[in-house]
Design the sequence.
């Protein structure tokens, strides 16, 4: 395993990835390809819990408080994550340097990336043979969008369900489904294009905005999500109002093909009228080159299920970092 910086290591902890940053390391328990776990400095009870987690009895049912990921500094575990999402600081004799790293490890494990949360939820579903929802099967009837939600107080119990364009009604529905007292954690989604696939944090208000914009424009939500990703929204956090303003400026309709869009754009820009006024046959207009020019730097096209395309004007040129600009 190549060596990482400490900053890279703490980000890897959020994703439950094995990482080596010299004195600071993260390791998945039960990874047969990893280095042997160290019990150095642990008190006997903590060492036994880690040992049982790493080497369970064959055929034994999943034990509560099973350790699944360990953060160690100078070979001593300073924090670990259990399969139910609980972060533990095990009883251990720690040096000043280890005590200094412990809160940072706890913070990283308490702020897991949503992909890591889904991994924990999948383990929970498998261990408990859940048949009442879980991570495996989003709804297949009705609309094409679904969200995987959990109560933040019990992140490993997840449910697939649907939301609407109404943020307040959707939030109430998610609370009823998950049993959450307050804001619900969105772990995963389907049907929101590459935005839903790549964004680090899923925001309910923004997903409801996508639903609303898609319905108003008679587009599938995945097309709006694809546009958001192409404009760089997967890597930042635009507000719903920013997305609405950008969509209003960018969406240029549904077209049969790039060719038909370029033809309409040629006419809209006045090229056809100019050619006619000059007595030049429109066949001499290089439509393929114009089409390439439009989609190389001026517009995005998103494929639709019926083989047409949704066209969006770019808010940024390809040479600059893509962001949503109202």
Sequence:
């Amino acid at each position: 395993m190549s060596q990482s910086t400490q900053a890279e290591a703490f980000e890897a902890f959020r994703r439950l990835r094995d990482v080596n940053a010299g004195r600071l390391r993260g390791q998945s328990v039960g990874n047969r390809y990893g280095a042997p776990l160290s019990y150095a400095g642990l008190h006997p009870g903590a060492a036994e819990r880690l040992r049982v987690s790493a080497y369970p009895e064959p055929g034994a049912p999943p034990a509560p408080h099973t350790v699944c990921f360990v953060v160690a500094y100078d070979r001593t575990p300073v924090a670990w994550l259990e399969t139910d999402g609980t972060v533990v600081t095990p009883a251990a004799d720690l040096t000043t340097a280890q005590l200094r790293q412990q809160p940072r490890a706890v913070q990283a494990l308490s702020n897991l990336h949503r992909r890591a949360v889904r991994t924990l939820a999948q383990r929970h579903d498998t261990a408990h043979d859940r048949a009442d929802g879980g991570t495996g099967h989003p709804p297949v009837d009705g609309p094409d969008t679904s969200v995987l939600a959990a109560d933040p107080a019990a992140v490993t119990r997840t449910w697939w369900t649907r939301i609407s364009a109404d943020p307040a009604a959707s939030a109430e529905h998610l609370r009823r489904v998950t049993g959450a007292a307050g804001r619900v954690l969105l772990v995963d989604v389907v049907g929101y294009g590459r935005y839903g696939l790549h964004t680090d944090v899923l925001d309910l208000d923004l997903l409801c905005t996508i639903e609303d914009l898609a319905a108003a424009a008679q587009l599938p939500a995945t097309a709006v999500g694809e546009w958001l990703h192409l404009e760089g929204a997967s890597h930042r956090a635009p507000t719903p109002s920013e997305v609405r303003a950008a969509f209003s400026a960018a969406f240029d309709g549904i077209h049969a093909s790039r060719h038909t869009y370029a033809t309409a754009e040629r006419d809209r820009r006045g090229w056809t009228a100019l050619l006619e006024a000059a007595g030049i046959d429109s066949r001499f207009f290089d439509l393929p080159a114009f089409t390439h020019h439009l989609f190389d730097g001026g517009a995005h096209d998103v494929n639709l299920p019926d083989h047409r395309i949704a066209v969006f004007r770019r808010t940024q040129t390809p040479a600059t970092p893509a962001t949503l600009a109202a």
About this structure: Residues 191-326 form one domain. The chain has a mean pLDDT of 89. The first strand starts at residue 19 and ends at 21. DSSP finds twelve helices and eleven strands in the chain.
